[in-house]
Amino acid sequence: MRNIVLIGMSGVGKTTIGKTLSKVLDRRFVDTDELIEKKTETDIEKIFSLYGELYFRKLENQIIDELYQEENLIISTGGGIVLNDNNIVSLKKNGVLILLESSIENIVNNIKKSETVRPLLNDERDLHIKTKTMCDSRKELYLSAADFIVCVDGKSIDEIVYEILRKCVKINS
C-alpha cells in the first residue's frame, strides 16, 4: 500500500493529523523532523544554529531517500520539503501527497500555541509577516507537488482525517 505523505506549511497540523491518521489506518507514523533529530542526536533548532539551513536540507533529503522505499507509512514532512525537487520525486514514487492548507491566521495561532521550535519562524514579533512571506514563496511548490489538497480551517481532526481517507480511496480505486 502506498504511503500517505502530508505536506504544507509549518504549523498547519501535519504531525497532529498524521498521528491520528496512523491510528485510524493502523499504519506506522513517521515525522521527518523527528527522524533527523534521532539521526543527528540533536534538535532541529541546534542543527540550524550550528550548521545552517543548507545542511538541514541535506539531512532532510537523506531521510526522504530512505523513507520513500518503505510502504504503508503515514509521513509528516517538514514545511520546506518542497524546496528540493528530488524530495518530491522520491516521495511520489511510493506515496500520495496531501497538501494541508490553512489561513495564515490559523497557522500563526497554531505556532504560538505549540511547544515545537521552528527555526525559520521563531520571532513572535514578525511571525505573521514571516509566515505569510514564507507561505507565498512556497505556494506554487506545494500546489505542484500535491496530489490532493485539504483545507483544515474550521474542521476537527476527525473531519480532516475523513476527508484525507475519502481522497485516498479515490486514488486507489
TrEMBL record:
It catalyses: shikimate + ATP = 3-phosphoshikimate + ADP + H(+). Transmembrane segments: none annotated. Pfam families: SKI (PF01202). GO terms for molecular function: kinase activity. SUPFAM superfamilies: P-loop containing nucleoside triphosphate hydrolases (SSF52540). Mg(2+) binds at T15. Pathway: Metabolic intermediate biosynthesis; chorismate biosynthesis; chorismate from D-erythrose 4-phosphate and phosphoenolpyruvate: step 5/7. Substrate binds at D33, R57, G79, R138. Its cofactor is Mg(2+). Binds 1 Mg(2+) ion per subunit. It is found in: Cytoplasm. ATP binds at G11, V12, G13, K14, T15, T16, R118. Keywords: Amino-acid biosynthesis, Aromatic amino acid biosynthesis, ATP-binding, Cytoplasm, Kinase, Magnesium, Metal-binding, Nucleotide-binding, Transferase. It comes from the Bacteria. InterPro entries: P-loop_NTPase (IPR027417), Shikimate/glucono_kinase (IPR031322), Shikimate_kinase/TSH1 (IPR000623), Shikimate_kinase_CS (IPR023000). Gene3D superfamilies: P-loop containing nucleotide triphosphate hydrolases. Catalyzes the specific phosphorylation of the 3-hydroxyl group of shikimic acid using ATP as a cosubstrate. Monomer. PANTHER family: SHIKIMATE KINASE, SHIKIMATE KINASE 1, CHLOROPLASTIC. Belongs to the shikimate kinase family. This is Shikimate kinase. The gene is aroK.
